[in-house]
Amino acid sequence: MREHAQRLNGLGTTIFAEMSALAVATNSVNLGQGFPDRDGPDSLLEDAIAAIRAGANQYPPARGVPALRQAIADHQKRFYDLSYDPDTQVLVTTGATEAVAAALLAYVEPGDEVIALEPYYDSYSAGIAFAGGRRVPVTLRAPDYRLDLDELRAAVTPRTKVLLINSPHNPTGTVLTDDELRGVSEVAVEHDLIVITDEVYEHLVYDGGQHKPLAAYDGMADRTVSISSAGKTFAVTGWKIGWVTGTPAIVTAVTTAKQFLTFTSGAPFQPAVAGALALGNDYFDALRADLQSRRDLLCDGLEELGFGVHRPQGTYFVTTDIRPLGHTDGIDFCRMLPERTGVVAIPHQVFYDNPDPGRPLVRWAFCKQPQILQEALTRLQKL
Asked: Average pLDDT of 247-253?
């Protein structure tokens, strides 16, 4: 039997699947995979139930139901003063993961280079490989995980086609500053690059900070594929409702690829998300405050246990250095952890092309109930 395509090399079972299975087998507290252990707002859930009962159970329109496309356009205007035509500049996708994959398929030719911020979310590597591209890392380095604009500029070659930018950044929790974003936009304009932005944690920014979309910067509106989703903001990661905004040409290009992936999905969830996007500022403010308090609970506890802790500016993940505890390899540490303490985390090094900078780093999710986080900290005292 012939071997599988080479593009699948290195894309076996994800670390998330491995660690989640280990969590079940050992009855561990799972601070690995980033899903909340609560449901979203009641109004969102009730709207989905009502849509199912009203018969919204067949294929929705390929670009998404009109109510959701309008709500996405309204959201972009409300929070960022960005104007989009819901009929031609908005596409609903099966989560942000599909949106990123479709955007890469739409713009990357075999041999093209895609610059991505390292450590990167694991689907980026797969999406670039499926498109036949070559990923080029620009590394966010401990302890502050800032973007080195000189390193970004040096990474660009005549083969560079796309910048893949993730801010707020998973897994480090970094939120790119205004200067960093301006620098990215200058590089993109100078070299005529497409920029794909993964902004799924846009509403999870702490300490009074604010997410700024790259599409708002000079010269970026015509070259930015802006991507977000409902999963993180409304605690419905299993619904897989994401979206793309951009120029009509960008949205058409991404739609052309996306229609042959899932075509469409989430019929009863789409109108429910439309209603949630219109919730008042009190919802978004309370979400941030709640997750910031959980961040501080977990960070304070991990610091007391001796970890080197990087307190994140955004997302719902915290990165720790395990060397102060006498460990040097995150994979070994995370495989040992469930059996020894009954807690699961994710090693950073799987998110790097060159794993050395990430080898002593481990990521923990704090999107769990406070009592669960406290239980994890209690168990970790066995270290």
From this structure: 98
